[in-house]
Amino acid sequence: MRSISGTIRTPWAVTTFTGLLAGAMALSLTACGGGDNDKSSGDSSASATTGTVTLPKLNGQSIEVAAVWTGAEQTNFKKVLAEFEKRTGAKVTFVPAQDPIINFLGSKIAGGQPPDVAMLPQPGAIKQAVDKGWAKPVGAEAEAQLKKNYSQGWQDIGKVDGKQYGVYYKAANKSLVWYNAKVFENAGAKEPKTWQELLTTAQAVYDSGVTPFSVGGADGWTLTDWFENVYLSQAGPEKYDQLAQHKIKWTDPSVKQALTTLAQIWGKKGYVAGGADGALQTEYPASVTQVFTGGDQPKAGMVYEGDFAQVNIGETKAKVGSDAKVFAFPSVGSTAPVVSGGDAAVVLKDSKAAQALVTFLASPDAATIQAKLGGYLSPNKNVPTSAYPNEVQRTIAKSLIASGDDFRFDMSDQAPQAFGGTPGKGEWKDLQDFLKNPTDVAGTQAKLEKDAAAAYGSGS
């Protein structure tokens, strides 16, 4: 059975971690450095053996790494690259990319200046890079690290036609709702476990004088994440897999049910900060920070997004675990959803230095450095949970590793990028239109199906 992404071939069960989050809000988000004890001698020996992975000496060699990461996420990743430089003697340059990264890479390749390694945020993008002849398989050293440190499921989503092209350096749990603790306290609101309880909680927040939800609608991917959580819980894993592979149409009754459910929040007057127009002008980072600025009178009381929201919360004065708390996305059907995402390192220029970098990124050494800095989650099972800087993050990391292969990958990331990963097009645009007019369920379904059929048919 071939999936649209070309990487996911087996149906995986969904798991929850609601219980694991209980009582995990005790500590604040603090940043601390990594790699302090790793000293590279800088001599001319054949390899550098500091840490758990052996790396070649690469004095005088230079490589470029492209990613769409910005802000603290980019800053922290550069610290990982600096450690690679220290151990190998290579020079690594970070190249800021724009979404969709496949288009960015296409322009770089057409100009004869491709980066050596790219961090691709979708399995579908890895498949496209392979189909276009851009991506190169990872070497034996990186494969050995993957087999040692990753579950089979995380290895498989980096494969195309049985060959390993992607090293998933970063993971995400995209089934979390973060909230302003003081707002909930003032409203007498409780952490919900079901969708109905979420609506009750939202009404309590609204009645206290605070808008319940912040939505980063200017970034269409946040809206696909909302949909995926509702759909996975309500329709179930089997339907989720079918829709992800376009084996059922977006005009299916299950999609109508999920959109109708979403409209209970998106279409409720006063429930979304700034209304639909305001949300569509709010980019993701601001959707998080505006929940945790303004004391107990912020622009909104809660925001849905993944564990990586901690990076943005850290830009405010709020402390994770006291001022900023989190609960698992409530169950809409019989089981609460867990949707995962991630970013994979893919080699575009098959050099010794590029292969050494992806080998390093597949090791616990690299991930442990960034784990200590906060706002990051690794699928690497040999990263010690003690590396994560707060109890919330440690709990999320434990749940990810404990799930093994039992997870569902972000649906839009499995789709051809023209449908699931391009600003102003496909699913992103169609759900932005739906946020603006949540009464038009049938029209939204028709647009989603038209765009999906075109993208899946062309594979672009």
UniProtKB/TrEMBL annotation:
Pfam family, one: SBP_bac_8
Signal peptide positions (record): 1-33
The entry's keywords: Signal, Transport
InterPro entries in alphabetical order: Bact_solute-bd_prot1, SBP
Statement: the UniProt record of this protein carries the keyword Signal: yes
Family: Belongs to the bacterial solute-binding protein 1 family.
Name of the molecule in the record: Sugar ABC transporter substrate-binding protein
Lineage start: Bacteria, Bacillati, Actinomycetota, Actinomycetes, Kitasatosporales
